[in-house]
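Students often ask why inverse folding is considered easier than folding. One informal answer: many sequences map to the same fold, so there is more than one right answer. In these notes we will look at a single instance of the problem. The structure comes first.
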């Protein structure tokens, strides 16, 4: 690897040059099926003709101005996202980390405006919200936090899907102002929040005057078969954080807010340089239009549902397979042992996947994934998993 890059990534020996749809090619001319889509970023696949044409057109007109001026494309994107989410206002930034950082600031300001001196936010074990000091402090993974102490204070951690834990922290922490939860934990191992638990949180927040804030950075923008994963629970959060797949590869993040939460920030209390510039907003608008026009929400439900069913049927009874879980095209296969070696083995077979939380195979293909591509992915992956587990059994 190049010697002048900071050593922040354990990169695979692979450099990609181009892609078409769900396929990418490396510098040696080898083709790979993309079962990861840039970690849920390439929503409409690679080199989608409509997205390419829109970006070329926008680059020829205006890439960036500044939030010192009106940005009509930003207004259009805010209108569309708020319509899809049932929200009132949108703030645009560059990434999921920044969207989550904005949510944390909003919750604290919300508390201070109501006379809470040291506002606290309920967060979750195994959650991942980013790597800035505030978002890694909210993250429930000691590996992410180690070495960066002192952490930012003001977070109270609870187990996922545990209603009694919410009642307990409410009794012991009078300064709580918000609950911040991923609808589906991505980095934490594809762990969905149960629909009934999200409905419980909505009621609990309403009763106590807390904000319900949903991190949809990885599971949003159609990945589960609805525009936003929390919509399966038929709730409306006060705050939603988005990023990753929103502009299919062009960096953008968004914070959506409803009701009183939407009026929390005033001029000068939050901002960004690049966020929501004309290029990013054009990419996001085109991505949303492609999802709508090509029926990609239904495609995510149909193809993703079939993949999960096949994985359960063909791996479910295998010793070493703990669980297949997820929603739509956000799928995790948990094994009973660390399985990071599968990433390199899959690459050798022409398949790009990821392992998260040490022992969860993570599948996040683009929303354009066709049934024949899903069949190909499983034809490559399932034998790999079977051989991996069999090899472990022989050496045990």
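Output (designed amino acids):
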């Amino acid at each position: 690897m190049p010697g002048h890059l900071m050593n922040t990534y354990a990169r695979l020996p692979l450099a990609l040059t181009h892609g078409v749809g769900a396929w990418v090619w490396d510098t040696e001319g080898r083709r790979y099926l993309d079962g990861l889509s840039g970690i849920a970023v390439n929503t409409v696949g690679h080199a989608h003709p409509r997205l390419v044409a829109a970006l070329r057109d926008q680059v020829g007109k205006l890439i960036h101005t500044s939030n010192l001026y009106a940005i009509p494309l930003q207004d259009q994107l805010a209108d569309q996202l708020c319509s899809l989410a049932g929200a009132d206002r949108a703030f645009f930034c560059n990434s999921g980390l920044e969207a989550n950082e904005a949510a944390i600031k909003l919750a604290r300001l919300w508390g201070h405006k109501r006379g809470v001196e040291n506002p606290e936010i309920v967060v979750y074990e195994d959650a991942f919200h980013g790597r800035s000091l505030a978002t890694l402090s909210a993250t429930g993974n000691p590996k992410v936090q180690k070495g960066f102490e002192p952490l930012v204070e003001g977070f109270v951690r609870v187990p996922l899907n545990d209603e009694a834990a919410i009642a307990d922290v409410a009794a012991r922490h009078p300064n709580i102002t918000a609950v911040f939860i991923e609808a589906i934990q991505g980095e934490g191992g594809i762990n969905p929040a149960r629909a009934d638990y999200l409905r419980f949180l909505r009621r609990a927040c309403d009763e106590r005057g807390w904000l319900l804030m949903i991190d949809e950075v990885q599971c949003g923008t159609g990945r589960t078969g609805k525009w936003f994963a929390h919509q399966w629970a038929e709730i409306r959060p006060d705050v939603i954080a988005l990023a990753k797949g929103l502009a299919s590869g062009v960096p953008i993040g968004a914070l959506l807010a409803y009701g009183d939460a939407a009026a929390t920030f005033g001029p000068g209390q939050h901002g960004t340089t690049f966020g929501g510039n004309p290029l990013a907003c054009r990419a996001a608008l085109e991505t949303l239009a492609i999802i709508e026009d090509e029926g990609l929400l239904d495609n995510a439900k149909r193809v993703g549902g079939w993949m999960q069913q096949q994985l359960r049927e063909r791996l479910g009874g295998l010793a070493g397979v703990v669980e297949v879980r997820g929603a739509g095209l956000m799928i995790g296969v948990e094994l009973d042992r660390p399985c990071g070696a599968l990433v390199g083995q899959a690459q050798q077979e022409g398949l790009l996947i990821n392992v998260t939380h040490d022992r969860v195979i993570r599948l996040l293909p683009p929303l354009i994934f066709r049934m024949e591509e899903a069949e190909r992915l499983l034809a490559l992956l399932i034998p790999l998993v079977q051989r991996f587990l069999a090899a472990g059994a022989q050496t045990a």
